[in-house]
Amino acid sequence: MGTAVTHAPAMEDLTEDSEPRHGPVNSAGSAALKRRGRRENLAGYLFMSPWIAGFLLLTAGPMAASLYFAFTDYNLFDAPRWIGLDNFSEMFADPRWRHSVRVTLWYVVVGTPIKLILALGVALLLAQKRRGQAFYRAAFYAPSLIGASVSIAIVWKAIFSDDAAVDRAQRFLGFDAGGWAGDPDMIIYSLVALTVWQFGAPMVIFLAGLKQVPRELYEAADVDGAGKLRQFWNITLPMISPVLFFNVLLETIHSFQIFSSAYIVGGGAGGNACGPADGSMVYTCYLYVQGFENSRMGLASAMAWMLLIAVALVTAVLFWSQKRWVHYEEDAR
Amino acid sequence: MSSPGLSTPIDRGTPPAARPAGGGALRRRLPGSLAWHLGALALLAVILYPVLWVVGGSFKRSEDIVGSLDLFPGDPITDNYTRLTEGIADVPVSTFFMNSLFLAGGSVVGILLSCSLTAYAFAKIRFAGRNLLFTLMIGTLLLPYHVLLIPQYVLFRNMEMINTYTPLLIGKYLATEAFFVFLMVQFMRNLPRELDEAARLDGCGHFRIYWSIVLPLSRPALITSAIFTFINAWNDFMGPLIYLNEPDKYTVSLGLKMFVDQDAVADYGGMIAMSLVALLPVLAFFLAFQRYLIDGMATSGLKG
Amino acid sequence: MQQGRNVERRTVLKAAGASLAVAGLGATATACGGGSGSGDGTVTIRYAWWGAQDRAERINRTIALFEKKFPKIKVKTDFQPYLDFWKKFNTQASGGNPPDVFQNAIGFLRKYDAKNVLLDLGEQVKAGNLSMEGFRAGLEKFGEIDGKLLGVPVGSNSMALVIDKPVYTRAGVKPEMGWTWDDFDEAMKKIRDRTGRAGDSGMYGVMYLYDLYLRQNGKAFFTEKGLGFTEADLTDWWTKAEKGVRAGLYADARKVAQIKPKSALSAELAGSEFTWDNFTVRYTSEGKSEYGLAPIPTTDGKKTGQYLGSLMLSASRRTQHPEEVAQFIDFMVHDPEVAKIMGYDRGVPATQAQYDAYRPTDPVNQAIAAYEESLVEAGVLETITPHPAGADICEAAFLRIAEELALGKRSVDDAVKQFFTESKTALGS
Which PROSITE patterns match (chain C) (predicted)? Predict the structure, then answer.
């Protein structure tokens, strides 16, 4: 497979669908053409019907409902009761909510850069043609497939417990801090480690991007006597900036939504929703607790909308900033 | 590539030139190569440690699993696996596997059908409003799932579908996974236009073209989507956690979580063995199809 | 989407769902609903409880017995640890799909009655499917609220100090009825100094223990409407706790967090734990040591504040098989064989017939019997105080916030404030 797919052009096609506008049909443009247009419309919507049904039933409808719930007191047992902005004021006044925001932001701000830098670094290494390159690429990618599973979360909790590998390694290095899984301040870093462990997915994307950088550029730079660092900074980075942008965008959005691993590494049984003293109480964990464990669907909906707003803001800022640092091929040439 | 405007990446992309990232490495080939391999191996060790840990742990006695630093036990035991034949909470482990298999298989079928239909419409049919719908579809790609979580739950509850597989599958049959639609759109756009135009001249309708020409040609994209769908469905935890109530209907993920809640105290080793067993299908898929997965992943990055 | 106000729309949605089901999900959609009947008249009921593995084994044996006597009824089971059980139950109940019959406790009766989750079993008593005769010590009234029979007691229990006997012996501590909190504090120190182990696992977070302490002082954890104590009361309780944690009198909360769901006592992180007396059964199967029961310390040398608690069986109002569920409950509380299997795992059997059928021969169950008898003899048992709707959320919050305090994540003032804030929300005041 793939060759056709792997060097696809960069992101700009993502939003801008490149179909020509249905310009004014020429005067000769006859009933036949119109009829064809209508047939095309019919066929188009017929093919699209599952998606349209899904969009209305499972996306647009629920979003509208969720917006409504956000302004109600709704416990699923009784009909929703309109309470205006109460959910939002309660949320902002709730230290546990603020704590979950802090934990999540910290997780995003620490985890995402480390993961991406590692992914880019390893991709640069793997871009060199060496024996075993394909093997390493595959092996490094594997954690991205299993990282979200319950199994790995269980393993993670074990490795980060007292006396297990991480604790021993720490002690070997001279810290006696104990395992991270039981420590309210450290448990979040075990989750950071878990996301960094899954650096393979962005790495593969970086690799594909690196492969597309025309080698003539480097050859020209070699002739000019530019050092490797200069080359990386002036050629590689701008050339892969669309891919970098994409990775930053997706990883950030995903990080905001971390749930399962926090729920299992931090939770286990015995009443803690997410970690000792809410140590791994990420945003979605708290949302789950309020919605499904405390039956506060209205409040949880309000929380979900705050998450949506946050993600939208981050996306908007990233898209706004890309003008400054993302170079699509046209500009670079 | 007759259609103006439909981007055809092939003519734009440069040939895949795997070049040394930093240039000029040829001169110092040997020591560089050694460092490279050492670095890669060291990283590999760190990456693989958790996986080896669970493999080794599953053959250890419960009390040796966490504390002992040896990856593999001196005297391996298989008790942890025989323990699994007893099932979890009176439900045979095979039941969880069948449930997961059913859900994952059902998801694959749904995604392949619904997403390819949608993708075909986006890629091959010019209909009014296409651009708008495409933008909406891309928008759902960035939408946090949690906004939909509660209203969807309320919806399915009002339809009395809690504790059925319908809520977990229905979206797959309605092409709500924008990622796969997108993957297929990109692929279908790059198929040579001449083929389906010839078919049109022969009088084939869209459905014939979709079914007999585009779908077979899109195999690589379909395979990639199928594998990702399978793995995602297999790993899914939150969906089953919310929608499934009876152990008989649990997936492997939920069964494992139930093990943690119920038996982990008495039988830590069994839990570790179960963790590994739960990973096996995903690992097997990975080994068999890693090229499709990695290429699919790479594509997604370049195209969003 | 709201609560079927708009019937038409719901019907439309259902129809849409149905047509989708036909389109490819047929097999799954028809598998709706929990206990449904099948062709040969066999019905299946779902039964859920909280507990650990050893209870599960006993319960499964009693179910086998039941299914033999009632071949037309099949029972499917599910269980979790206490708090997880209630989280899941809440999700299921709000999703309209609670188990048909489930273990229940006093703190949840009003809450789920207010939400129309619980079946009034009185109807089934009238219909003759369930007998409320022959209960001990007035227990038949235990699950009645506003004239509705919402739960049937399976056993009575009371709070106790469950101790690791060898540890107490080594430390030279011998708790006796009427010992005071000062004696208790002294004992904690002795255990720490002489055995190197923390004396207690985390008493400061046990709502039911704090309730006893308050009752010794003429208060209670709950009133009909809200909390029965002040911020100052709780500040005292948790200030003492904080000191105790720092001094190593109570177990290291970090360690306790990691070994969950195992208990701190059976994991040998502490020498004793305040919990229900029937827990010795579980700890004996979970841990390696020998566990015994000690009396609750007192404030004045006499009053312990104790009352009989009880686990109950309740039925879901949405069950399609109320008759079978009633027969099941009836069997579980009256059948003598059940008592022989269960022992005192869920407390001393509630009915006289079961009480007589099981005479403990092993030291663990004998100790429970002796403990309960000693309470009766000492005359310390009082009547239970109310548990308003929302009591369960307060209980979970109390435990969680106390843990945060012990982990050093909150100051005492902060913890007290947080608890009162959350309780107010939970109790709707």
Answer: PROKAR_LIPOPROTEIN (PS51257), TAT (PS51318)
